[in-house]
User: Which sequence fits this backbone?
């Protein structure tokens, strides 16, 4: 019995002593290392990498709390403001509860992430589209007295934009920056940028962060006025009331408006008179003045005549 105990004691303390001492040192080292590990919670910013095919419609957290474990000395020197942000690719996220991958964190050697803590978020996405939107010129100011803006056109007349489908559906047109026509007497051409689109919508085919530039052509024409004259003894039946439309300068060049009007019988025999500006009038006057309406004031009632304006002409477009 005594010899057996002696053999056991010798095996424990004498045989392979070097190996046993090495194992003991390793165990002591692991014990010390584990004993020196601590836990620290730091706040880390989140950097989201956009997804070109969709946009997120949920309010994602800008910071997360990272529960870190590592050597006491390393964590003691770790400051959250010096840590790089957690990079999250939106293309890697699925709809539903937000789950962030801690592998996106870059940490010092020996430090590991136990978990990430953030508020609960239900992630929702919306598809992105690219569509052309018509461009409208924004005109400001008033032309010189006696002139008006006849029309304005942008070239190109549309621009491609990219954004969420719901945002694009609400955009009827893109506006240019203002084009000032104050005091203008002639047509204008201006190169201006496009006004910023709504949030989450961006211009395409433009340098990053740049604003597209378009050319706006503005037509300026003399304002049209109306003058009414009466032609007596029309066909022996009474008077004709004739309304003539044209720019002020054309009327200023005429001494006797009635003398410039020629009354012609109806070509189709319906009895309706036809009135026009005589060919003997100066060319610039003949081109500028237009008979707008003719009405019989006495005698057998007659309907309005020829030269009835279209809906566009009815706006007294004398230009």
Assistant:
């Amino acid at each position: 019995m005594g010899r057996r105990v002696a053999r056991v004691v010798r095996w424990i303390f004498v045989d392979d002593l070097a190996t046993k001492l090495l194992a003991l040192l390793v165990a002591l080292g692991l014990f010390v290392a584990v004993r020196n590990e601590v836990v620290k919670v730091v706040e880390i910013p989140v950097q989201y990498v956009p997804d070109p095919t969709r946009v997120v419609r949920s309010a994602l957290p800008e910071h997360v709390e990272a529960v870190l474990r590592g050597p006491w000395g390393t964590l003691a020197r770790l400051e959250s403001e010096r840590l790089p942000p957690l990079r999250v690719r939106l293309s890697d996220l699925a709809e539903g509860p937000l789950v962030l991958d801690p592998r996106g964190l870059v940490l010092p050697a020996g430090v590991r992430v136990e978990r990430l803590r953030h508020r609960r978020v239900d992630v929702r996405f919306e598809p992105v589209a690219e569509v052309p939107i018509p461009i409208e010129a924004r005109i400001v100011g008033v032309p010189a007295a006696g002139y008006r803006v006849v029309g304005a056109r942008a070239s190109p007349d549309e621009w491609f934009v990219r954004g969420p489908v719901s945002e694009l559906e609400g955009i009827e047109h893109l506006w240019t920056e203002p084009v000032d026509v104050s005091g203008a007497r002639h047509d204008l051409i201006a190169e201006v940028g496009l006004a910023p689109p709504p949030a989450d919508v961006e211009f395409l085919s433009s340098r990053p962060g740049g604003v597209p530039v378009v050319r706006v052509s503005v037509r300026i024409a003399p304002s049209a006025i109306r003058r009414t004259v009466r032609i007596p003894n029309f066909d022996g039946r009474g008077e004709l009331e004739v309304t003539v439309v044209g720019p002020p300068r054309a009327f200023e060049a005429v001494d006797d408006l009635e003398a410039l009007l020629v009354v012609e019988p109806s070509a189709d025999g319906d009895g309706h008179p036809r009135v026009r500006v005589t060919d003997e009038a100066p060319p610039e006057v003949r081109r500028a003045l237009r008979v707008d309406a003719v009405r019989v004031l006495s005698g057998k009632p007659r309907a309005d005549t020829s030269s009835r304006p279209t809906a566009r002409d009815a706006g007294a477009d004398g230009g």
